[in-house]
Amino acid sequence: MGMKAGVLGILAILVFTVFWGVGLAFGEEAKTPPSLSLKEAIELGLQKSRTIRLAELSLKVQELQYREGKANLLLNPSVVSELQLENTWQSAQRNFALQRMQLALSIEEAYYNVLRAERALSLARENLARLEKQLEDTRIRFSLGVVAKIDVLRNELEVDRARLEVERAERNLALSRMNLGSILGQGLEANFTLSTDLSFEPEELDRDACIQYALLHRPEIKEKEETLALRQKELAVVTSYTPALEREKARVNLEVAKEELENTRESIILEVEQKFSDLLAALKNVPIARKNLEVARETLAVQQARFDAGVITLLDLLEAQNDLYKAESDYLQALFDYHIARAKFYNALGADLEERGKLTPRKETGKENG
Description:
- The chain is mainly α.
- It has 2 domains: 40-196, Outer membrane efflux proteins (OEP) (Up-down Bundle), CATH 1.20.1600; 197-370, Outer membrane efflux proteins (OEP) (Up-down Bundle).
- Helix content is 82%, strand content 2%.
- It is built from 10 helices and 4 strands.
- It has helices at residues 2-31, 38-48, 50-75, 79-143, 149-183, 207-217, 219-237, 244-308, 314-349, 353-359; strands spanning 35-36, 193-194, 199-200, 368-369.
- The protein has a two-stranded parallel ribbon with strand order 1-2. Strands 3-4 form a two-stranded antiparallel ribbon.
- The longest helix is centred in the N-terminal third of the chain and has 65 residues, at 79-143.
- The radius of gyration is 31 Å and the shape is elongated.
- The chain starts with a helix and ends with a strand.
- Residues 114-179 form a coiled coil.
- Belongs to the outer membrane factor (OMF) (TC 1.B.17) family.
- Keywords: Cell outer membrane, Coiled coil, Membrane, Transmembrane, Transmembrane beta strand, Transport.
- It is found in: Cell outer membrane.
């Protein structure tokens, strides 16, 4: 009986241990931040953000005013008043569409900012590890009398600076995550695993086609076109029995609407041209930053070999290590700048994520990651 009880006790302990381990595994899995692609982030923000909720409430108020105005027209019919009411309601809807566009751009910028901050922290940690390893070697060399005390102090100084850089990168990442969570309406403590990477995939862009697309899809153009149509209808309902002052006012309003439409067209064309130029500059800077990174890596390898051979000083080697870290950071910044310029360019076109691929097919080139 004693042996049987002992065996049963051991089995009970094993079963408890297995289920406890499984429970821990599920607990850890539950704590894993949810994955979020750029598309999913934009969709989430357009549904849950406080900005969009306020915009929806404002639109609802304007809709109620529109319905109230329609009811009043039943008692006091007026063709002109009805046209103006319809135009006001359409303008409110266009403004809401503009707010959605600007929110989508803000979400995309915040998303890429988190990606940049994550990669910047990784680079800072890699740089710190590189310098700490060098410090170990320097201290060994000092104990053997190969290098001077000043070399140890210099290396320690660089390590201290690298630690401060890691701390700064950690704070930046925390703030960028808080900003993204706030924009998405998920709170400052929200955390996500971002699945869209900070890659570089050049695109073929047709400037003229992009301008035409913007002129067809920007809400501001549609709003001005609707206003022009309203002014034309207002002038059309003016009769010879209408006071001369009212007829003249209708004609002036029509001319104003025409000028505003042309001015809006020119402004949008100029904006697209500017964003197109910014995107091209950012696109061309990425290969340059990548080449600079390759040079810095090769230079460090050469300087390390020369230092090991006793040809150069530790100061020269530390300078090469710092140059590599700067080149890595510059390349990351170039990738970030490219994605932000790209987002602003498509925003200037009035194109969402779904429309981008249709508008500008990708080149058959290799994909680069930051």
